[in-house]
Write a structure and sequence with these properties.
Blueprint: E1 4-13, E2 16-26, E3 31-35, H1 42-50, E4 57-62, E5 65-66, E6 77-80, H2 92-102, H3 107-120, H4 136-148, E7 154-158, H5 166-183, E8 186-191, H6 194-200, E9 203-208, E10 211-216, H7 218-223, H8 228-233, E11 238-248, E12 251-256, E13 261-265, E14 272-278, E15 284-286, E16 296-308, E17 312-319, E18 322-329, E19 340-346, E20 351-357, H9 364-369
Parallel strand pairs: 3-8, 3-9, 6-7, 7-8
Antiparallel strand pairs: 1-2, 1-4, 4-5, 9-10, 11-12, 11-14, 12-13, 14-20, 15-19, 16-17, 16-19, 17-18
């Protein structure tokens, strides 16, 4: 398998800058996902790794070898597209055998390698079927078998599950991850689906407007996003403004606007304006004031909306002059709109999303309006 490195890569299409200053390294055998909204540049990066697009500036390397100018057919890369791209007039066997045929693999080896690939994707009995005789999930498995049949060093997947329904997507996520681990193949996966990225990846790169905003493990990105875009793109998040009143070692004391004082991880100068984040599942909603706990904060709130989700209930609540979303599972008490409740969180679940110095002559409220 191969390491994949992009160093200072830009890609421009005329006046449009699709990728800007992309630098990343994907380790050998790693499952790395590029996650971002449409138009963020993730597919363009994939195409440059595959060799279908050339960078305007920068370098693409495999195992330290510069492959920026190397043609796609010499990069030893397998590719899976969202549209499957199967030949409609060829059988499953011939579709999977195609990459071996164009590489002039002896016919005596082709059948063995095709059957091995189809066995890996659980389709050995489908060799004589045409693509139109397969379900969407089966077609995607054939496309995956075709991408791995020639034992590429790198596997690239561009929104491969986008055309499938939710149940089938979930099943295919498990199958793709199982296969990737079994083969140990370096994989770069592109998706706009947050759940897909979090559940499948060793590491994720969050993209916006041609740049990678943050890279890390799924847990790192979800628990400690570096900005509001990353926080909200990975799920619901609640934001609360405040001002640092003092720092105690690695802990900062923050006065919330129209609310209490809380402690958060980090050290910031007094007077720093901060925005704190807390995830909906880290909020507790109760009918009575909860018992005081070390590191916990409680505020009064009013229920604005209740959404029943089966295994959980999602509440939209008004508190501290803003709106919170709380995600509660296993509840025996349900609240209705306009109910007066209490909202609680632990300091350990708060994260500082942004911090900036307050001008000397500005009050916290003036800075907040800015």
């Amino acid at each position: 398998m191969a390491d994949v490195t992009l160093s200072g890569v830009d890609k421009e299409f005329g006046a449009v800058s699709a990728v800007r200053g992309c630098t990343l390294s994907v380790r050998s055998g790693e499952f790395f996902t590029l996650l971002g909204p449409s138009g963020s540049g993730k597919t363009t990066i994939l195409m440059m790794v595959a060799g279908f697009e050339q960078p305007t500036r920068g370098q693409v390397s495999f195992d330290g070898r510069d492959v920026t100018s190397l043609p796609a057919n010499r990069r030893d890369v397998g590719m899976v597209f969202q549209s499957y791209a199967l030949f409609p007039h060829l059988t499953v066997f011939d579709n999977v055998a195609f990459p071996l045929s164009v590489r002039h693999v002896p016919k005596t080896q082709i059948r063995e390698r095709v059957m091995r690939a189809l066995t890996l994707v659980h389709l050995p009995a489908y060799v004589d079927r045409l693509p139109r005789q397969l379900s969407g999930g089966e077609q995607q498995r054939v496309a995956l078998a075709r991408a791995i049949v020639f034992s590429p060093r790198i596997l690239l997947m561009d929104e491969p599950l986008g055309a499938l329904d939710k149940k089938l997507r979930t099943e295919m996520q498990v199958e793709i991850r199982r296969l990737q681990r079994e083969l140990g193949i370096t994989t770069i996966y592109v998706t706009h689906d947050q759940e897909e990225a979090l559940s499948m990846s060793d590491r994720v790169g969050i993209m916006r407007a041609g740049r990678i905003e943050q890279m890390g493990t799924p847990r790192e990105l979800y628990r400690a996003p570096t900005n509001a875009f990353v926080a909200t793109f990975l799920g619901n998040a609640n934001f609360v403004p405040g001002v640092v009143v003092e720092s105690r070692g690695a802990t900062a004391v923050v006065a919330l606007s129209a609310g209490p004082t809380v402690s958060v991880p980090g050290s910031y100068p007094s007077g720093t304006a901060v925005t704190l984040m807390v995830r909906p599942e880290h909020l507790a909603v109760t009918a009575e004031p909860p018992a005081p706990r070390d590191g916990a904060t409680s505020v009064s709130a009013e229920v604005q909306e209740t959404v029943y989700l089966g295994a959980a209930v999602q509440y939209r609540l008004g508190a501290l002059g803003t709106t919170f979303i709380a995600h509660m599972s296993g509840m025996r008490t349900y609240f209705a709109e306009h109910d007066k409740v209490w909202l609680q969180w632990r300091s350990d679940d708060l994260r500082v999303i942004s911090a900036r110095a307050v001008p000397p002559n500005a009050s916290p409220n003036e800075e907040e309006r800015r």
